[in-house]
Amino acid sequence: MKALENSNIDSNELCQKIRNGEYLEEEIINSLRILGIQGRWDEVWNVSHALGIEISWIQDAEGAVFVDLGSSGEVRLSAPIGAVLPFQLWIHTHPWTAYWSFTDRTALRNFAGLLEVAIVLGNDHWKRSRCRLTMGQTLPDGIEDPLNMWTDEEIQQYPVVSEVMA
Ligand SMILES: [Zn+2]
Fold it and tell me: In the chain, what are the domain boundaries?
């Protein structure tokens, strides 16, 4: 893994390869890892759309990135083998519209204090939620719903600005 951040990924070419059925899963996963690190999340969505599946992208406590190619159904947030909690960022794609689905809201509840930022990607927009807890902090007494520990933010248009990664 050398200079990943500087790798030059052509996501249009990758989508074309996918449509032609000429791709290796390893190439897709590597490309998605890099596109995510480079903050090119609209292109991550494009690749997921070409594949017809939902993608999950996790950056762990040490900055390592884990990509999971889901099925055409909803991807779930789970801790990949070797990943270190708490996670810095979890991004996943939806087929078209970005919102917190029932499954996603369950994930946010379960990962309150274990995940800093969650982002869901749609076709031309995305949605973010940030955990208000200090990482590693357990849920304070009197909190009825852990979902209340997450910010409720407006839908945003691409491109994703870099402050999200800060
Ligand atoms: Zn979702």
Answer: 53-165
